[in-house]
Amino acid sequence: MPKVAIVTGASRGIGREIAKNLAVKGIKVIANYNKSEENAKKLKETLKNEGIEIDIFKADVSRREECKELVKYTLKKYNNIDILINNAGISEYKLFTEESDEDWNRVINTNLYSAFVMSQEVIPNMIHNKSGCIINISSIWGQVGASLEVIYSVSKAGMNGLTKALAKELGPSNIRVNSIAPGIIDTDMNKHISEIELKELEKDIPLEKIGLPEDISRCVNWLVDDMYTTGQIIGINGGWE
Ligand code: NAP
């Protein structure tokens, strides 16, 4: 039986690459999107042309009811969930003193609450199967903090805490929970950074280059196959710390 994976925020960037590569690996993928319906349809179409079927499903994962619908759809269609990739996320650049309650709620709900809710919704099925793999896409900023991205850094540090604690709670059920903490990856999330600034950033990275979405999906594919790694925060950052 092929494994089944839900990837949140799979319409663009890192999530899209993760969904694509899991599908190429033979896993049944439910690629979640929220606003970018055209991109999600394009991903489905591209894979279909290669003979690979994926499902796309619209849900705002910052809302529990929509997460429930996403999980309900998956269980109805495949009767099983083996893998959850909590990837959906947004960033926010502001001085800390200018951040509002709305900013806090938007970033925390999208980046952290979504991982809490999606995990809660899939875990009963994983416990029943005595098998599961949850991967949280956090960030280097959750480890070292970033100026002008305090709420984002909090959300990703929270995700790392969720990973470590949940890995302990779910280990006896043979459910592995890990975080991947990317450094800087070439996606829309960084399109506000100028070419000159990117070149400057590259000088600080030991491997002297910005990462690509496939650098993250390669690690996801490895974690999905692995059987003895849990509770880890894996930095994929070109050595940038
Ligand atoms: P991106 O290109 O901006 O893509 C973000 C994705 O998240 C989109 O598919 C978007 O879907 C989805 N999303 C946002 N809000 C959502 C919501 N409420 N419900 C469902 N989906 C939602 O960003 P990215 O760089 O690929 O980032 C992916 C993850 O990696 C994020 O968690 C980010 O924090 C993390 N990360 C990125 C970097 C980096 O340098 N790029 C570094 C460290 C960590 P729609 O467009 O369909 O709404």
Give the topology.
Layout: E1 4-7, H1 13-24, E2 28-33, H2 37-49, E3 55-58, H3 64-78, E4 83-86, H4 101-129, E5 132-137, H5 141-144, H6 150-170, E6 175-182, H7 195-204, H8 213-225, E7 233-236
Parallel strand pairs: 1-2, 1-4, 2-3, 4-5, 5-6, 6-7
Helix pairs in contact: 1-8, 3-4, 4-6
This protein binds NADP nicotinamide-adenine-dinucleotide phosphate.
NADP nicotinamide-adenine-dinucleotide phosphate is lined by residues 8-9, 11-15, 32-36, 60-62, 87-90, 110, 137, 139, 182, 184-185, 187-190.
Describe the model:
By secondary structure, the protein is of the alpha/beta class. It has a single domain (4-236), classed as Rossmann fold (3-Layer(aba) Sandwich), CATH 3.40.50.720. Helices cover 49% and strands 15% of the residues. The protein contains eight helices and seven strands, in the order E-H-E-H-E-H-E-H-E-H-H-E-H-H-E. It has helices at 13-24, 37-49, 64-78, 101-129, 141-144, 150-170, 195-204, 213-225, and strands at residues 4-7, 28-33, 55-58, 83-86, 132-137, 175-182, 233-236. A seven-stranded parallel sheet has the order 3-2-1-4-5-6-7, sandwiched between helices. Strand 2 (28-33), helix 2 (37-49) and strand 3 form a beta-alpha-beta unit. Helix 1 (13-24) crosses helix 8.
